[in-house]
Each structure stands twice: as C-alpha cells, then as structure tokens.
Design brief:
GO cellular component, one term: plasma membrane
Main location: membrane
Membrane topology: Multi-pass membrane protein
GO molecular function, one term: aspartic-type endopeptidase activity
Largest sheet: 3 strands, antiparallel
Pathway: Protein modification; lipoprotein biosynthesis (signal peptide cleavage)
Shape: globular
Strand content: 5-15%
Structural class: alpha+beta
Helix content: 55-70%
Strand order of the largest sheet: 1-2-3
Length: 164
C-alpha cells in the first residue's frame, strides 16, 4: 500500500507542477480567493521556508536518506498497519515528488500561497509530507501514552500485590 499511495501522490504532484510551469510565468499569481489564497508560481531553490538556499546536492542527499528511512520503517513496522502505510506513502510520495523536481530542475516548483497569513509558498507534495508527519507524531505520542499507562498499571499491581 505504501508504494501505491506514494506513486499516486508523486504522479499528482508532478502533474500539477507541469500544469503550473507550462501555463504560468515564474512569480506570477492567479487569485483563487482574493486576499486569502492564490496560485503563485515560484522556483524554490531551498528546503522548507527556503532554508538551505542553493544547497541542491545536500538537499538531494537528504531526500535520498529520508526515502531510505521510509522504506526501512515500512518493511520493519508497517506490515499490518494500514493507516501507517498510508502515512508513509504520503511521506514517500511527497519526498519523491520534490526530489524529482530537484534532480530534474535544480529547484522545487511551489505554487500555493495563503496570502491571508503570508504563509510561505508550498505545493501538493509539501502538504502530503505535513499531513503524514502530523499523523506520525500523533501516533507516536499516543503509543507513548499507552505505554506509560501500561507501565503505571504494572507498578500499581506490584505495589498492591498481596494486599486486598
């Protein structure tokens, strides 16, 4: 399931980026909801929030390492966990979509701009990555809370052992 989701995400991402790059000029905008949301075609030569600007080789290496980690986590932990597989697929597809841009173009095509809050321009792949990471963090947090609860129950039983 991970690779199916990743393939779909990467394909959608690349299709949208192709449409944007062939129908818009760089740094041009199309208002979707005036004052709130617009399509703004930019060429992002950095990572999230344009950090590591013009560090293309480093960003490619980081993306390849992240993809390797995702594949490892999938093989090791996700076999019978559909939601985890979907989250990893979103993460993998987003990473691959942006990696394709970086290798092919030397930059990532970004196009969604939330003008109302002046949020940095992003793309579909970025959105999939964020959704996946939020899910994975919440899942880890929940698992930790459950483990702490189990540990507390075990301690309570040890303390009360033999007492009515």
């Amino acid at each position: 399931m991970v690779y199916v989701v990743a393939g779909i995400v990467a394909a959608i991402d690349q299709l949208i980026k192709w449409i944007i790059s062939t129908h818009m000029a760089v740094n041009s905008a199309i208002p979707i909801w005036p004052g709130v949301l617009e399509l703004l075609y930019v060429q992002n030569r950095g990572a999230a929030f344009s950090i590591l600007l013009n560090q293309t080789v480093l960003l490619i290496v980081v993306a390849v390492v992240v993809i390797g980690v995702i594949v490892y986590i999938n093989r090791r932990y996700a076999k019978r966990h559909l939601r985890l597989q979907i989250a990893l697929g979103l993460l993998l597809g987003g990473a691959v979509g942006n990696l394709i841009d970086r290798i092919r173009l030397g930059y990532v095509i970004d196009y969604v701009y939330i003008e109302a809050i002046h949020y940095p321009v992003f793309n579909f792949a970025d959105s999939c990555i964020v959704v996946s990471v939020v899910y994975l963090v919440l899942r880890a947090w929940r698992a930790r809370d459950q483990e702490v609860g189990i540990h507390k129950k075990a301690q309570t039983k040890e303390v009360n052992h033999g007492k009515p």
